Every structure is written in C-alpha cells, then in structure tokens.
Amino acid sequence: MSEILVLVEQAEGEVKKVTLELLTLARSLGTPAAVWAGPGITPEAKARLAEYGAETIYVASSSDIVDHVVAPKAELLAQLVAAKSPAAVLVAATAEGKEVAGRLAVKTDSGVITDAVGLGEGFVADQSIFGGGVNVHSRVRRGTPIVAVRPNSTAPETAPGAGAEEEVTVALTDAARSARVVERVKQQKGARPELTEAAIVVSGGRGVGSAESFSVIEGLADALGAAVGASRAATDAGWYPHQFQVGQTGKTVSPQLYIAAGISGAIQHRAGMQTAKTIIAINKDPEAPIFELADYGVVGDLHQVVPQLTEEVTKRK
Ligand SMILES: Cc1cc2nc3c(=O)[nH]c(=O)nc-3n(C[C@H](O)[C@H](O)[C@H](O)COP(=O)(O)OP(=O)(O)OC[C@H]3O[C@@H](n4cnc5c(N)ncnc54)[C@H](O)[C@@H]3O)c2cc1C
C-alpha cells in the first residue's frame, strides 16, 4: 500500500494526540509514515508513533527546521513528496498545520483540503462549512492530496507499526530562512487539556453572568476532565480570557462532547463547535437556537443545572 505522510505535532518531545489520530486515519487508507520536523525526538516519542502504526519515521533533526517559523516544514515535506511519492500528506488542521499545508500545496503544485472532519476511500474528505449548514465531500484532483484534518475527528487506535527510523537532510532555501524565531515564551498551562485537543469541552456564554460565575463552568469541566471554552459575548465582557473563545473568530473545536451552557447558538459560535460528536445545551430559553443543533437539551437555569451535573459526575467517579 502507498505511503501516507503524517506531519507530527509535538510539544517538548511529547507527541500530541492529534498525530495519533492522523496515524489511525492514515492506516485506514495506506501505510502511515510519520515525519518528525526538528530536533528532540525521544525513544518514547518513537515508540508512541510506532504504537499507533507508523511504519517509517522520517526524522529531520536539524534545528534549522524549527528556527525559521513554518516555511522549513513545508520544504521538508515537499522534499519527501518528491522523493517518496506518497499517496497523500496529512497534517493537523491547526493554525500552523494549515499554513504548512498551503505552502506545501504551492510547492508541489497540488490540491489542498483544510478543516476536514473525515477522510475516506479515494481520499474523499468531509468538511462542514458555512457555520455547519452544509456538509461537503471533496477530493483533490491535482498532484498529491494534502489534507489538514481537525483534531478529534478520529478516535486514535493502536496497531503497532515497524517505526523504522530514516534520517532526512533538508536543503533549505534562503526564502525559508527569511523569518527567524528570536524568542519562545512558554504559555502558562493549567491542569486542563488544551482546548482544541480536548475530548470534552464545557463552554459558558453570556448566561453565566459574571467572571466569578465561570467557576461553575470550570467545576463541571474539572469533574469531566474537560477543557473550558467561552462564547464571544463572555470573552468580550472580560469574564474569560479570549484565548478560550470558541467560534468563527476564536478556536475551532471538534470534541466527542461539547456542553454549551448559557450560549444562544449564534452562527458564529456554531462555526467553531458544530462538528462536535455530541452536543448538550443548557439554556433557560426553550426557543434558543442552540437547541436546534443539540443532541440533548436541558431547559433550565445553568446556575442550578450545572452544579447538579457536576455533583452527579463527581459521585460516579
Ligand atoms: C464577525 C463576527 C464574528 C463573531 N465570532 C464569534 C465567535 O468566534 N464566537 C462566538 O461565540 N461568537 C462570535 N460572534 C458573536 C455572536 O454573533 C454572538 O453574539 C455570541 O456568540 C453570543 O454569545 P452568547 O450565546 O454567549 O450570548 P447571547 O446570544 O446573549 O446568549 C446568551 C444565552 O444565555 C441564555 N441564558 C441567560 N441566562 C441563563 C441562565 N441563567 N441559565 C441558562 N441560560 C441562560 C439566554 O437564554 C441566551 O440564549 C461573532 C460575531 C460577529 C459579527
């Protein structure tokens, strides 16, 4: 079966869950090969990639790859596409992944599909567009299919691969070196999972009422091991930091479970969450548009419903 390249997303040597998802997806369509861009691959990371099906791990360990923003990653992949003629290239549909995908498409004269939520036979991708109003099935017709897949689109499954390591040397162009990373500032991270990667997201909106009351949302999130999200109304009011905003102008999430509390379901909010597998809405207005989208709905005051839910979840742990 033809090789499918998967660009590895990692943080300090730890392989991110989305990469395991992409390897699982790649396995259903061909032979997965992981591409590690930059220094710092560890034996644990190699073992993890092999555990999820990587037959080959291409390692480009030059620090140049990570010292010049995203362009070198696109050049690395373009070089591998030329050398290995893979059936497809999969990247995570993160901000960086999508930029790499776009640059790679130009370099290889190929078609690119972004924000796929599924990928099937013949590399036909599923996308959900116009705020979730339209589902699109699309296929690249030119060059090597390059597909950016949203985190949480596939459940990662183990199926050991050989994990054979192959060192790759990349000859970067001057253009790829034109922007240099001069400083890295580590983001303060709490104990909660990263919003775009989390399997469960609990979001609060204007109905939460104040910054202090977001502790109700956080309480449920912590009981479920979930990430916290917020509507733009809540972030604009200063109740929750903007980095947690879900929607058209915020983050796009695609978790297994999305709980929207005190959120009306405006189209711009839906755009960021409507591909969640299961949606639960808690809203005191039975006519709130979010109920049109929800799999389960609770009509009630979130300040009563959410603490009860948290208590029940905690009891069952
Ligand atoms: C260009 C553009 C981009 C945008 N991008 C985004 C985006 O990325 N993300 C985003 O979220 N929005 C975005 N918006 C804003 C969007 O249009 C809505 O204004 C916003 O999503 C509303 O947030 P909300 O649902 O929290 O507030 P509201 O629409 O005010 O809804 C609050 C809901 O809470 C319910 N409620 C109130 N009190 C309670 C209670 N005690 N218990 C239970 N329910 C209660 C109400 O019944 C209501 O349904 C964008 C708008 C524009 C124009």
Number of separate helices: 10
| Overall CATH architecture of the largest domain | 3-Layer(aba) Sandwich
Average pLDDT score: 95
Helix content: 25-40%
Protein name: Electron transfer flavoprotein subunit alpha/FixB family protein
Cofactor: FAD
Subunit structure: Heterodimer of an alpha and a beta subunit.
Domain Electron transfer flavoprotein alpha/beta-subunit N-terminal: 4-185
Q: What does this protein structure show overall?
A:
With 317 residues, the chain is an alpha/beta fold. Helix content is 28%, strand content 25%. The chain contains 10 helices and 16 strands. It has helices at 17-27, 43-51, 64-67, 71-84, 95-108, 214-224, 232-236, 267-270, 290-293, 302-315, and strands spanning 3-7, 10-11, 14-15, 31-37, 56-60, 88-92, 112-120, 124-129, 134-138, 146-149, 164-167, 200-204, 227-230, 257-261, 278-283, 296-299. A 9-stranded mixed sheet has the order 9-8-7-10-6-1-4-5-11, sandwiched between helices. It has a 5-stranded parallel sheet with strand order 13-12-14-15-16. Helix 4 (71-84) packs across helix 5 and helix 6 runs parallel beside helix 10. Flavin-adenine dinucleotide binds at residues 205-207, 231-234, 245-250, 262-264, 266, 268-269, 272, 282-285, 288, 301-303. Pfam families: ETF, ETF_alpha.
Summarize the structure.
Residues 4-185 form the Electron transfer flavoprotein alpha/beta-subunit N-terminal domain. The protein has 317 residues and is of the alpha/beta class.
Defining traits:
alpha/beta; Rossmann fold; 2 domains; 5-stranded parallel sheet; 10 helices; Rossmann-like_a/b/a_fold; flavin adenine dinucleotide binding
